[in-house]
Amino acid sequence: MEVGEYLRVSNLHAFYGESHVLHGMDFTVRRGECISLLGRNGAGRTTTLRAILGLTGRRTGSIMLNGREVINLSPHRIAQLGVGYCPEERGIYASLSCEENLLLPPQVGSGGLSLEAIYDMFPNLKERRRSQGSRLSGGEQQMLAMARILRTGARLLLLDEISEGLAPVIVQKLGEVMRKLKEHDYTIILVEQNFRFAAPLADRMYIVEHGQAVAEIAQHEIREKQHLLQKYLGV
Amino acid sequence: MSEIFGIPIQAFMGQLMLGLVNGSFYAMLSLGLAVIFGMLNIINFSHGALYMMGAFLAWMGLEYLGIGYWPALLLVPLVVGLFGIVVERSMLQWLYKLDHLYGLLLTFGLALMLEGLFTNIYGVSGQPYTIPEELSGAFNLGFMFLPKYRAWVIVASLGVCFATWFMIEKTRLGANLRAATENPQLTQAFGINVPLLVMLTYGFGAALAGFAGVLAAPVIQVSPLMGSHLIITVFAVVVIGGMGSILGSIITGLGLGVIEGLTRVFYPEASATVVFIIMAIVLMLRPAGLFGKEK
Known about the structure:
The complex is a heterodimer of chains A (235) and B (295). Chain A has nine helices and ten strands. Helix content of chain A is 31%, strand content 29%. The two termini of chain A are 34 Å apart. Chain A is α/β, with parallel strands linked by helices and 235 residues long. Chain A has a domain at 1-82 and 189-235: Rossmann fold. Chain B has a single domain (14-285), classed as Orthogonal Bundle (ABC transporter involved in vitamin B12 uptake, BtuC), CATH 1.10.3470. Chain B has eleven helices and four strands; from the N terminus they run ββααααββααααααα. In chain B, helix 1 (9-40) packs antiparallel against helix 8 (194-216) and helix 9 (226-241) runs parallel beside helix 11. Chain B is globular, with a radius of gyration of 19 Å.
């Protein structure tokens, strides 16, 4: 294990029923690093996050989390090792109030934000804390989905398309939150469609295609590897 | 005034009370069904058998071991709940991903086996269970005599129903249950042990049926078929109230008990069918039930 390595995914294959979605994903994330998985729709980025948490069907290969093999653990055991998940569809519970949503995920590590700190960061959520989850706006739901995992003390955050479908002001706000998280040394995997959102935040980017990581681009290489971005993402 | 709509007030109030007592049982049983369906996605056809088992265990406890009514009220639900947990771990847990029909078939088969077992040993005739001394006799309310035990049944079941509602709607544990009902995968991905919650939920639903069984033992004959007599009406109650609604099943259970009781006063011929007539009307007007949400 390399020094400072927090997550190593090697030769990961994942299936939904009969369909084979991940074909040998390989990538690593160092402690405190933010990486981004870029790629087209259906390339397998969301599935990669779900496979790390054990939410897909059958999986083979290896997922080392903080020096520990987790591929055979059930989802709640993996989460308890300090993984926070913000799903693409946001996953706000309609039958729970805003605050109940916020308090739902159990503590999985020390050093999570207190409720007050979260309400400082997201004042809207404080105003809306009695509202049913289903009555929140898209932006509020996204804030809530992020806030929810910051309370738990999770150190590895899996964030799926957090800027999707949101007004520019809110995307900007999320960018600020992301920078704060980086300052606080969170380890982050950011799945993004929005290259402009991901590029300034990610220390490294992996391009995912057909269920594999086909290219790796470090922050300082963005210019020289422009042709790869062009080729795979059209940006 | 000694008459209401031409019916002696004594008879009227008597049937109203009886309706409330029946309604209490409907409420407790349909509540258990609703909680189980929400969490396990299984229509628990063995619910009536679990209720019967509760009554029988109370009777057996008294008959063979000398365990009285009050300890039975605590012990029997524990035993029935434990039995539910064994059933869930050994059989039901393999069916969650399949169609509703499989869970229904398994639990129906289980109900037949339980009924068959008790029928084999005790026959179909009822066993009497005496009302505990503290609750025998009646209150004289002036306009009617209210048997103490009936009053106790209503109070106890309302208490249990309210406690269940409070636990699910107002506590952290309840929030976990609601979350796991709505999106089990994501809830587990947050680090909540959903399989454990599911197991406990079935155990709790079974315990609720067992509790209802103990409450019922002194008011009806304890017989192996007492569950299947009741469960059909309880399913109608669940359909009317809306599958998966907690408050809905409590209110509908009590309400239909009362309606049934009053029908017995005013038009006795319809008393056995009135619940199903209401069910048909509700299904025509609100297919998801009175308190259910359309999906």
